[in-house]
Amino acid sequence: MSSILIIDDEVQICESIKFILEYEDYSVDYVTRGLEGLSQLKEKEYATILLDIQMPDVNGFEVLKKAKEYNPFLNIIIISAFGSVQNAISATKLGAFDFIEKPIDRDKLLITVRNAVKQFNLIKENAEMKQAFNPDDLLIGNSKAMRKIKELIEKVAPTDARILITGENGTGKELVARSLHQKSERSEKPFIDVNCAAIPNELIESELFGHERGSFTGASQQRIGKFELANKGTLFLDEIGDMSLQAQAKVLRAIEDGRIERVGGSKKIDVNVRIVSATNKNLADEIEKGNFREDLFHRLNVIPIEIPPLRERLEDIPEIVDVIAKEIANRYKKLAPVFSEDALAIFKGLSWKGNIRELRNVVERIIIIVNNNPIERKDIDFLLPNEKLSIDTLIDGSNSFQDFKEKAERAFILKQLELNGWNISKTAELLEIQRSHLYNKMKKYEIEKGE
């Protein structure tokens, strides 16, 4: 339950606002003196303050300034008599969230408080996330591909350049977006994410730009869109390739103008957002099909970042498994297990079509079911995906028929070595080749125990 503090020297107004807000399930306190309100802020966390300007002991401007020092995330709404509207406008320039004119309109009060509390909670959530995660810990792996991505993030994060992240499902596109935000100069402001594929086309514009009350059937109250919520922060448009053409046109206009317009509204609203977008689709193909605007693509694709699938950076698997295992074990209040080299070798032999998301699910399954520590190959064989490195994977990663044959031979030899516990003599016998021939093959394909 969000807490609201009212600071106003008129008890009747305080009681009236308290009654309205408590009916909407807010926790409400009030004081009639500015200094008393500042003392209250030291005792309890509030999401929003409703503050009068003219009070007998201390000016509301001083309360506003001190309250912001106590908690910079706090949203302060000025409640002002008609004669001091100019004071209220001045206060908003000093950091107030909004102002409401007396006598107070109930609907205006509820909408403004709702928006202020929502923004406070988003900013607080982002701040807590920043404390909980080191940006460098978000992206796991030290493969050549991951090192390049991390280096690129370091270069572009401090800028406001728009970034398009591409990659298969489950590769960690959102983690790259969060890392960009946390390393940027906007890190203290909100990180707002929108999954464009999860929102029906008829609602995507309302989600992004907000709507006015009565603008369409079911719009019973005003709604603040993601662009406004992300003001001065980062807006992450995930699965941008699934956005409708109509919404694409509005996003393009918002980027060009730096302003948006709510659905059903006529007022232009200034927004300052850094846009990071992501997709698992080939947008060049989508442009050819007429599903994506080419002008929007060029606006979004200032800095492209392509995340490779897990099968192309298998050397990162041990580190990824270690981090995931510790996180999941902590969640289930279990001792974090250690995976043996043979167990990790099995992980490296899988195709991971679902990428890190699939790997996480498998590790969680193992931690829940297997109690041994360390975890050996024999403990997990029955819990792993049925397929090994697939034919499709080999074909997609091969440049020629000879390349395909060599990759297939390498995968087959590696599998036989694993099945026979890396016993060279036994494996050579089963393959019906000499031990020296098998050694030569292992050297050629750079096959080593524990990979």
What does this structure look like?
With 451 residues, this protein is an alpha/beta fold. The protein has four domains: 3-129, Rossmann fold (3-Layer(aba) Sandwich), CATH 3.40.50; 145-306, P-loop containing nucleotide triphosphate hydrolases (Rossmann fold, 3-Layer(aba) Sandwich); 311-383, Helicase, Ruva Protein, domain 3 (Orthogonal Bundle); 391-444, Orthogonal Bundle (Arc Repressor Mutant, subunit A). Helix content is 49%, strand content 13%. It has 21 helices and 14 strands. It has helices at residues 11-23, 34-43, 60-70, 85-93, 106-132, 135-138, 144-156, 173-182, 201-209, 226-229, 245-257, 283-288, 294-300, 317-331, 341-348, 355-369, 377-380, 391-396, 401-419, 424-431, 435-444; strands at residues 3-7, 27-31, 48-52, 75-80, 98-101, 163-166, 191-195, 210-211, 223-224, 234-238, 259-260, 269-270, 274-279, 303-306. It starts with a strand and ends in a 7-residue tail after the last helix.
